[in-house]
Write a structure and sequence with these properties.
The complex is a heterodimer of chains A (474) and B (234).
Chain A lengths: L1 H7 L1 H47 L4 H13 L6 E6 L5 E5 L13 E4 L11 E8 L5 E7 L1 H51 L15 H51 L3 H32 L8 E4 H18 L3 E5 L5 E4 L1 H18 L5 E9 L2 E8 L28 H15 L2 E6 L4 E8 L20 E2 L3
Parallel strand pairs in A: 7-9
Antiparallel strand pairs in A: 1-2, 1-5, 3-4, 4-5, 6-8, 7-13, 9-10, 10-12, 11-12
Helix pairs in contact in A: 1-4, 2-4, 5-6, 6-9, 7-8, 8-9
Chain B lengths: L11 E5 L3 H13 L4 E4 L2 H10 L2 E7 L1 E2 L2 E2 L1 H9 L6 E5 L4 H9 L4 E4 L4 H12 L9 E4 L2 E4 L4 E4 L2 E3 L3 H11 L5 E3 H9 L9 H13 L8 E4 L3 E4 L4
Parallel strand pairs in B: 1-2, 1-3, 3-6, 6-7
Antiparallel strand pairs in B: 4-5, 8-9, 9-10, 10-11, 12-14, 13-14
Classes of the chains: A alpha+beta (474), B alpha/beta (234).
Chain lengths: 474, 234
């Protein structure tokens, strides 16, 4: 039932609370006004009666009686009291029938007229009693029924004013509740579709730019991002599956063949060794995938500190120099000055080592590899260039994609894993990675924001460091 | 049940691993190397056997049936038990590694690993490096002066580059012990990555050419599927 839902809705409940608040406020204001007014009126009546009674003390007896009679006659609504009692309290003339239970002191007092018996005005009244020189008591009074009537009038006015206001507020509440419910219903239906797996669904947005619209817009943006990530994940999943399954399938086939054909122990050994190689490749893929994921989730960032890329390059140059020599590849280093960045030294070293590893691997005998680190225009740059086959222009972006394997993969395994890790490390640092034509060969460049040498974070011993090693090709 | 008696002079190893197949492989490999091996499958059993003493090295899986293997390390270290511990784990992130070492592990190996890598690490842990403050090292015909930075092989002076010197020093402190490439990278170069090329072998080759002059027997030998070993007669 929509009615129940509407009544339970937030908009309606808000309207109800609003109406209650308005009613309470109005009742409070009206009550206050009434109380102020009635108090003032009672005081006024009291003052008038006191004044009249005091003046009557000076009148002679006949004049007084005349005035009392006059007073009663000119009061058809019987609101006034004026009575003369003898010293013992018996009524001589006028009204009320008995002496009201108040002190005879010429001041205003409140008493219930019901206690006086007789004329039947069950009412409250203000009385003033004075004793005359001859001992007689004069009582003047006025009923408060007029003022009490006013209270009812006020209450009625309050009700008359409040009822339509409250109804109007509630009606508005119902209107908004139904409207919100309709919109929420539409959104709800869209979400239900999304939860069923249709991630291309989007929440409806009507351009009123209210809260609901803003939320819907944000949710839609979030859905876009989720869709993009899922899509990416699907691709990664495909890549991983391919990169894991292929070596696993090869290993399996080799072991199967070994089992079926048997052969000598040495033949079996050879088969097993090959199978092991392929299993190792699967394991390497898993490790690389996990490392890239770990880096992409950015959990290592807190270990960042100042890193001198020139020193890192110099260390790696020394590390790889013997390998290059055995391959008859000339390796050169140009890192004369500190190249400071903020980052994770181990990861940056791994990235650069991957590039050098690749460069030496893909450079034929007699070729050259050059490692250069430099700072310029606030950018720190490391370049690793080789004179190998180079990277075809159409592959220059793809090679950094996760687990991409280029055509040359067959000749030298591990290329794809290495560059995807390099790319992940660069991304983690907010660095750029690019590959260019080195004519011939490839030039890989990692660049990022340089850290000023006089920065607080820079290691102090670097400040006046002499030029680092500069080596010409051997 | 733990086998406390040592056979063939090698110290006993306690392997705490809940995956039966892997535990058996580790046991097979270690026993083939001459280590008496005890297996434990749960955290409680592992702790009990470890406390009973007798094991010179512990191999502990990081995750034991959803229990934290590191709590074994923490418990033992808290009790003042100094037995060297090798942590094996499927968790490879740097954070996990650091946590493993902080909990009291002496070495950390990520699954899947080569069994020879594991035995090499166990061997390294089971041997105490002799006094590291010594200024002269001796291994077979090799003699190293750590102050003068000189190396001699049977009176013949061997000139080494600083990195080669450091490399040889690492071997001379661990004579007849299998040293893997990963150990060299971690300890000599302080590198935390594995190059895809045989660059470490090239360094070893260069070192070899210098310490083995024509006709002299090879001192640093290759160990199949594992790494290298400084082979000297004692």
């Amino acid at each position: 039932m929509w009615t129940i839902e509407v009544l339970k809705s937030r908009a309606f409940r808000l309207a109800l609370a609003f109406a209650l608040a308005i009613a309470a406020a109005a009742a409070f204001v009206f009550t206050l006004i009434y109380l102020q007014f009635s108090t003032a009126a009672v005081q006024l009546v009291g003052a008038r009666l006191t004044y009249e009674a005091t003046r009557a003390l000076d009148e002679n007896d006949d004049e007084l009686r005349e005035q009392i009679t006059q007073r009663l006659v000119s009061d058809p609504r019987r609101l006034d009291y004026a009575g003369l009692f003898d010293a013992k309290g018996a009524l001589l003339l006028g009204d009320p029938p008995s002496l009201p239970p108040i002190r005879i002191d010429g001041r205003a007092h409140l008493a219930s007229s019901a206690t006086l018996g007789g004329t039947g005005r069950p009412d409250q009244a203000i009385f003033v009693a004075v004793r005359r020189v001859d001992g007689a008591i004069l009582v003047l009074g006025q009923s408060l029924s007029e003022i009490n009537d006013l209270r009812e009038t006020v209450a009625r006015a309050l009700a008359l004013a409040l009822a339509p206001t409250t109804l109007l507020i509630l009606a508005i509440g119902v209107f908004f509740a139904r409207r919100a419910r309709r919109r929420v219903g539409v959104i709800h239906a869209a979400i239900a579709e999304i939860m069923k797996g249709d991630l291309k669904q989007r929440l409806p947005v009507i351009s009123v730019a209210d809260d609901l619209d803003r939320v819907a817009r944000d949710v839609n943006l979030m859905l876009d991002e989720i869709w993009r990530l899922l899509d990416q994940l699907r691709h990664i999943g495909d890549d991983i599956a391919h990169d894991l399954r292929t070596p696993l399938a090869v290993a399996r086939a080799k072991i199967e063949r070994g089992l079926e054909r048997g052969g000598t122990i040495d033949e079996l050994r050879a088969v097993m060794a090959e199978a092991l190689n392929h299993l190792d490749r699967s394991a390497a893929t898993i490790s690389a995938f996990l490392r890239v994921s770990e880096m992409e989730s950015g959990r290592r960032e807190r270990r960042f500190g100042p890193v001198d890329l020139s020193a890192v390059c110099a260390g790696l140059f020394e590390f790889y120099e013997p390998l290059a020599q055995t391959k008859d590849v000339a390796i050169a280093l140009s890192a004369p000055w500190p190249t400071l960045v903020r980052g994770d030294e181990d990861l940056l070293r791994e990235a650069i080592s991957n590039l050098i590893d690749n460069a030496i691997k893909f450079t034929p005998s007699g070729g050259r590899v050059r490692i250069a680190a430099a700072t310029g225009n606030g950018r720190a740059t490391v370049e690793v260039s080789d004179s190998g086959a180079g990277v075809p222009p159409q592959e220059r972006e793809e090679i950094f994609r996760r687990f991409y394997r280029g055509a040359r993969d067959n000749s030298a395994p591990g290329h794809g894993l290495g560059l995807s890790i390099v790319a992940a490390i660069a991304k983690l640092h907010g660095f750029c990675i690019a590959v260019e034509d080195n004519a011939p060969g490839a030039r890989f460049r990692i660049s990022g924001d340089a850290l000023a040498i006089d920065s607080d974070e820079a290691p102090h011993d670097l400040g006046g460091a002499p030029p680092r090693r500069l080596r010409a090709p051997a | 049940m733990p086998q406390n008696a040592s056979s063939g002079g090698k110290p006993a190893v306690l392997v705490i691993e809940d995956e039966r197949a892997l535990a058996e492989e580790i046991r097979y490999e270690l026993e083939a190397e001459g280590y008496p091996v005890a297996l434990a499958e749960t955290r409680a059993e592992g702790l009990r056997v470890a406390r009973a003493g007798g094991a010179a090295v512990l191999v502990v899986d990081r995750i034991l049936n959803h229990e934290d293997g590191l709590s074994i390390l923490e418990a033992l270290r808290e009790e003042g038990n100094p037995t060297p511990i090798l942590v094996i784990s499927a968790l490879s992130s740097v954070d996990d590694r650091i946590r493993g070492l902080k909990a009291g592990g002496d070495d950390y190996l990520v699954k899947p690993f080569e069994l020879r890598e594991l035995t090499a690490r166990v061997e390294a842990l089971s041997r105490r490096i002799p006094d590291s403050r010594a200024t002269r090292l001796r291994a077979g015909p090799l003699e190293m002066d750590l102050v003068e930075r000189t190396v001699r092989r049977s009176e013949r002076r061997v000139d080494l580059l600083p990195r080669e010197f450091k490399l040889l020093e690492y071997f001379m402190r661990r004579p007849n012990q299998i040293i893997t490439r990963a150990m060299l990278l971690e300890d000599v170069w302080n590198y935390k990555f594995l190059p895809q090329t045989n660059v470490v072998d090239v360094h070893i080759g260069n070192l070899r050419r210098k310490i083995d002059a024509g006709g002299e027997p090879r001192l640093i030998v290759n160990v199949r599927a594992a790494g290298f070993k400084l082979h000297v007669d004692d």
